[in-house]
Fold this protein.
Amino acid sequence: MTPSTPTNDRRAPTSASLPAPIRAGAFWAAVLLPFCALGLLASGLSSPVEYAAFVSLVAVNVLALIAGHDHGAE
């Protein structure tokens, strides 16, 4: 008896559909953005603008991690 293939395969979309230069840029952005966030944290989050900048950096970093995850996997 052979195993059946599930019909409701719900895998998350991968970044393999993105062009290689975009994946590479996202990968290196994900590497470098935490240093910017650390610099912002080291100076202190004393104003709402600095707090918004930090939250934005973290959000962009997460997106870059997702988009650049498959870089170099080929």
Summary: Residues 20-43 form the longest helix (24 residues). The radius of gyration is 18 Å. The chain has a mean pLDDT of 83. DSSP finds two helices and no strands in the chain.
